[in-house]
Write a structure and sequence with these properties.
heterodimer, A: about 600 residues, mainly beta, six-stranded mixed β-sheet, 7 helices, 36 strands, about 30% strand, disordered C terminus, B: about 160 residues, mainly alpha
Amino acid sequence: MTERWRAKLGDLDTQVPSDDVLERAKAGPTHRRDPSPSEPTSKRVFAGVAAVVVFALAIAIFVVPFLRTNGTPSDANVTPTLFPVWPSQTSDQLKQLQNQADHGDANWALDPSAVAQKFGQDVMGWPDASVVRSFDPYCFQPQDGSTPVSVPCNQLQVGGASVPANLPPHFPRPSGSLEEGATKSYALFPCSTCPKIASPEWVQLYQPLRQGDGAIWAVLQAHGDADVSVQPAQVVSDGASLDATFYSTGALPTLGYGSCGVSQATSDHHSGDYESTAELSVQLGDACTGAQAGYVWGAVSTQPLASDPLAGGGSSLISLSIVPVTMVFDGAGAQPSASAPESPALTMNPAPSMPTIGWATHTDAYGWTIDVPKSWTTNDLATQGAGTQGAEFVSDTMSVRITTQTAPKNSPPPGLSLPAKPDSSFPLDANALLRSKNGELAGQFRGDGLLFKVDVSSPAAPGQLSASDQAILERMIGSIAFQPWQVGDVRNDWVAIATPTDDVSWIHVEGGLYMLFRTADGYRLYGSISCAGADSTRTDVASDGSAKLTCSDGSTWEMSADGASGGSGDAATNDPPPEWPVTTAHDGTLIAWILPGYFPEGTGGSPTPSP
Amino acid sequence: MDAHDYDAIWRQSGATLWRAVYAYSGGRRDVADDAVAEAFARVMARGAGVRDPLAYLYRVAFRVASAELARRGKEVAEVPEIAVVDPTQNGLPDLLRALKELSPAQRAAVYLHYHADMPVRQVADLMGTSSAAVKVHLMRGRRRLAALLGQDDVS
């Protein structure tokens, strides 16, 4: 059965293209050229990773790099050669690094994941960079039968294990494990705890001097939100034209190149549409002669880059695509060819520092913390007594509001019910947490027993966030944290209790005596209970598994896990005490929401507050 | 299939692409013809430089169609001429009138997801937008079409 409106979509199948569409296409483009269309980010990522195979072949063909310091004078005679882009492009420095590693002074260089991570720290400017090994481009798995969802690549089963079904048909299928390949690829993330899903930087590494254990690794190329117009190992001559397409809204695109101390980049920074292009003509001058190791890069950043990312200018980078090339200097201060496009260029010299996205930790009155860009405005949302509590974090383009609802004193907070739901797992994953709702993003999580609501709005672009805002949001949401509990801690009417070792326990909580049952369905807490305000003479467990209280007059009171009560003598006439929510906090500690001093009628000697 | 065998791409995916653009343009077949032809022309011109020709085709075709619609005044005033291939069907005018109540992006998203059975993420990739945006398009488009065309189940 299909809904009527959906069935009617089939009426479109009666329409067919005109017969001459393909023939017209074969005659060539006829429209004025719009900005270059993009390939979707995910496909670009896939393509970047699929380049593993290309590089493996390239390595085999070109034999790994003994870098050319004396190239041939004409690019027609230049043999394309692979160079790493980082940590060095010179063979002497790579050999020096190998020597250091051999002597235990640079062990990181022997571990490809450490090299990738260090690239993130040193080049991308991400002190907390983390990496995830990427075996292949399959970062999707099916859900609900048909809709693939993105998952961290390291969670996918590949290389002989199951291949996710229902992949879009144009995705290439894997031909086997890439584990043994000559290159290794990693997804690089700007933080150690951020969600390992969205918009990663992809880094590809290989062993430039020799392959095998004990040989250093180097970054062959990186791929971010820019497609640059050159291929790895391509020969780029003086006067050549470079171009790149960038995919990132609201961030600054820069195209540049570097070789032999020469470094140039575009200077007409602007942030605008999701897709933008940049062009740059290569002007190598006479700093060197012949073929030299070089690189072409396309960066997306939050601030204008004052220098080449490899020269320390990457501290505001959102992403970086960088490709190793062979630059051919003619040694005569050649001018760009007449056909080279005009492009404003900025000669870039290494700059010592760059403005960064500073982060500060906000601590809420309810105990949770979150990382917030320092440039943002924080508004505390505090309601006297009951109501909305939390904070709102605001920038020019996005606001993030995190709130919880509190109840009047001695009343359970909204949403608290039996059985109580456990805290969310932290760190939170923004992509999993937030859902589109009326042009905004919204989600809920639980922490310290409280239900929190997250609302994200982007007035300038409802329903869509720029790449930079997306990255910021992911870090913010991923940074939300609560303090660990200690048994006896009390927060917001929740109290931490010890995890029982028996199925039935008598416990003291905030001056009251409670029964805690461990059942197959979770914990159940009843109380408090007393012998008319007096201490009991004994607490134990009855033979049938009930909690048993014996009073000084010999009367007893019993209660089972399901709340049934009974006993003998006067105590048996007591009303059963209430059940209180017990749940598991974010750090695994059991926490209970109770009203201290609350006694059912006839069982306690203390005043009974209204629940 | 060779990823750059454009004849094969046309045979396999051309009709779906064309209908997506046809829906996007509110039933203007001349816009769909022109946009799809231009998209194929550009992908052929770029050759192997395009790593994912199908995704490229969708992006170019939507872009060209969007530009053309904007040039013509964004929306058609009336339901355009319909080429009825199957003379037994007569529901298309109603569908097109209903689709006209949706935005171009909603039309394309609804067609690709609910009729061409593409996952949301793929639709987002092909349309050059985010999954979240596509979900919004789908939600609004679905509600509108259900209101206009009915939501009762049919066999």
